[in-house]
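Fold it.
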Amino acid sequence: MVERELIRYAAYFKGWCQAFGEHQGMRCTESGIDWLLADHQLGLVLPSDMVKSLHREVLLRRRTPSLIFRDECIEVGALRIPLERKREQKALDAVAEILASPEAVHLYLTSHLLYGGGNRIITFSNRKPLLIIYKVIGTMRVSME
């Protein structure tokens, strides 16, 4: 099991974010998740009903819940996001690579034209986001089992 503390960021202004950039996309039909795989960076676009649940779990709590990547799901506090075990293994391998890096792990929202203007990409990266757009809002425990 790998466990890390990641640095969370929020944009200074609502709706602002940097572009995700070039990536390999992977759509998982059962879970409804779009995965974006890039060098030292992983993004996921969740279906809108999951986004609402995620906001409730993360934003309406006094303490930020832990994030756990498992073979069969992603857990954020009490929220469970099911995964397609075989299909999403490549994405889980990318998460493991980011977490195993000696560099800090950063969490922030990005966007990409291919995924619609209203969708935001939850981005895990070993590279800091643009500090002119983002501010640090805290940390979060992340682990992979």
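The first helix runs from residue 48 to 59.
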